[in-house]
Specification:
mainly beta, 7% helix, 61% strand, disordered N terminus
């Protein structure tokens, strides 16, 4: 460390350059090592300018990682002390996680007299985050999103994200997902160009599905949410409800892939609207389940090759693991 002092009219300004600092919580859950900073103290005020050093970081969000995350942290922190307490403000910290997101952090903390410390922080994504750099996000959301979801999630990006941290507890977050793609090893159709706006209130995920393609089927609307709040290390179950439209034959193939291969092959031609309900459990062994309602209007059916076709068919078909029915 390097120290210096400059006399003022009735106070002194103390300046210092520090390197290799370590900051950790009492229980060791949070730890940052290798901090470098310039300090300027003037009476009861302290200004800390972080130099953006490369740091190993350990937090409870990344507990599943074998090694500490690497990150750079830069920005200014202002601290004011008084006989009755202290306050801290960070107007614009910049955190860049290696192989992860670039974040802007702003907020404040403090304590008055003998009261407990309070804090309020806001974290925002600075630039779009592609799927290839979501490893830390996967670790942080492990209790809320099944591993099989991340395995199927092959491409896409988070265009925008923000989160609120109050008194050490996450109070909510919002994400804007664009261009996501999902592919599975079984008969399920691939999902392309999925756009979604997601919100998390600290316990549950809830969001809107804005656009997507499932082969020849197009998403017209939908929602994604958690059915069960994660408890005791058990991840939540995702529920997806979607409305689709497209060719009737594509709808029947979708039903056969999701509900079961034993559905009968029907020579139906026309357009269809689908209401789909998908349950994505925490355990891959439990398997995903799909319930479908297919609305048909003006379809054509050729039940016997030599006979005249039936036309202008209308009605609703239902499909699930038990098969196809009216």
């Amino acid at each position: 460390a390097q120290w210096g002092a400059a006399d003022a009219s009735d106070e002194s300004t103390l300046r210092a350059t520090l390197a290799g600092l370590q900051v950790a919580s009492g229980d060791g859950a949070w730890r940052v090592e290798g901090l470098g900073a310039s300090l300027a103290a003037d009476g009861a005020r302290l200004q800390i300018d972080l130099d953006g050093s490369d740091l190993p970081v350990r937090t409870p969000w990344f507990a599943a990682l074998a090694d500490d995350a690497r990150a750079t942290l830069a920005g200014r922190i202002d601290v004011v002390t008084s006989p009755g307490g202290w306050s801290l403000a960070a107007p614009a910290l910049q955190l860049q996680v290696a192989e992860g997101p670039a974040l802007r952090i702003e907020g404040s903390a403090g304590a008055l007299e003998a009261g407990a410390a309070t804090s309020a922080w806001r974290v925002e994504l600075v630039e779009p985050l592609p799927r290839a750099r979501m490893g830390l996000l996967r670790s942080a959301l492990g209790r809320w999103v099944p591993d099989s979801f991340w395995t199927a999630f092959t491409d896409g990006r988070i265009d925008a994200a923000s989160a609120e941290l109050v008194d050490g507890q996450w109070r909510g977050a919002a994400l804007r997902v664009r261009g996501a793609e999902f592919a599975t090893a079984d008969r399920w159709p691939a999902t392309e160009a999925l756009d979604a706006d997601l919100a998390w209130d600290g316990e549950r995920i809830d969001g809107r599905l804005l656009a997507a393609r499932f082969g020849a089927l197009t998403l017209t609307g939908g929602r994604i949410s958690t059915l069960r709040v994660p408890r005791d290390g058990v991840a939540a179950q995702l529920a997806i409800e979607a409305q689709l439209a497209g060719p009737l034959q594509a709808a029947l193939r979708f039903a056969a892939a999701g509900a079961g291969p034993d559905l009968p092959s029907l020579d139906l031609i026309g357009e269809a609207r689908l209401d789909a309900r998908l349950r994505w459990p925490a355990s891959e062994a439990a398997g995903r389940s799909l319930e479908l309602a297919i609305d048909v209007d003006g379809a054509r059916w050729q039940p016997v090759a030599e006979a005249a076709p039936l036309t202008e068919l209308r009605g609703r078909l239902r499909a699930d693991a038990r098969g196809l029915r009216d």
